Amino acid sequence: MTMSLLLAAGDPNAAPDPMSHVLPHALFGLEWFTNHHFMSLVALVGGVLLLMLVAARMPLNASTAEGYVTKGRIAQLFEALCVFLREEMARPLLGDLTDKYIKYIWSAFFFVLFGNLLGMLPIGAFFKLIGINGLSHLGGAMTGNINFTAGLALISLFMMVFVGLKENGFGFIKHMWPVPFKPLPLLPIMLPVGLLVFILELVGLIIKSFALCVRLFANMVAGHLVLASLIVLAITAPAVGKGASVLGAAAFSFLELFVAFLQAYIFTFLTVIFISLGAVSHDEHDEHHGGLDEGAMPGESIDEMLTVTGGGGH
């Protein structure tokens, strides 16, 4: 429905442009402030307010069994999402470290999710239909802008390094230099090899972040472009008509809604995997192969998860 309104709101004599919905547009006469900046602020402020209201519906000190039940279906939905992310996504990988870093995991998931969902709302098209052309570009998916996904990926990169250093100290750097400094006669050979491995480990961290950035950006842009292109074909095809295009857009919007949740989940899931890789000591890898705890290292299960999701690893 979003795409059909956007295209229908345009000049009927002009050729519809599927790219107009995904490109950034300056707002309020400010070249540096685009519709994606605005939507990121809406996602941030609106998300915080919504989650505060949801938290107020969750009991903290209950005296009866009924008092522990969260009030309201919306609050219960968010509670179920939070429990799922903590118990099914984070805890199998982070173990006892889950509660320490779950706040960042929740924040990343809901910020990306709200950004994806807000991109489906035809805000700018509504203003254009009622004649306010100055706000015709108010809206759009901020996660379809590679600058925003790069910023999210950089924050995740910071968390990978921060958690690794906090939990392991110098051990986080040590595991990136696996070459020993003995025997001394081989030191001139071992030092270049160790330096090469260390550089490759650093590059691996950057590649992980790059994968997070490009995956989210490409999937969100592709989804919007495909929907827009299908609607353009429906509008311009004489046998189909504009009415059918609106119905088709409504049907495809359900797929876009699914993709919004899926991409938020994948971004958060890969972030948790990458954080867990540096959160524990590699020296104890062989001692643990199940769920992680304070001294465990993710085992073969993480390699399988990376294979399924297409993420990078060491």
Q: Could you characterize what this model shows?
A:
The protein has one domain (2-61, 68-309). By secondary structure, the chain is mostly helical. A two-stranded antiparallel ribbon has the order 1-2. It is built from ten helices and two strands; from the N terminus they run H-E-E-H-H-H-H-H-H-H-H-H. The protein has helices at 2-8, 35-56, 73-94, 98-118, 123-129, 146-168, 170-174, 187-236, 241-279, 300-309, and strands at residues 26-27, 30-34. Strand 1 and strand 2 (30-34) form a beta hairpin.
Across the major sheet, the strand order is 1-2
Low-pLDDT sequence parts: 1-15, 282-302
Q: Give the structural class.
A: mainly alpha
Domain count, please report it. Answer: 1
- Measure the end-to-end span: 43 Å
Topology:
Elements: H1 2-8, E1 26-27, E2 30-34, H2 35-56, H3 73-94, H4 98-118, H5 123-129, H6 146-168, H7 170-174, H8 187-236, H9 241-279, H10 300-309
Antiparallel strand pairs: 1-2
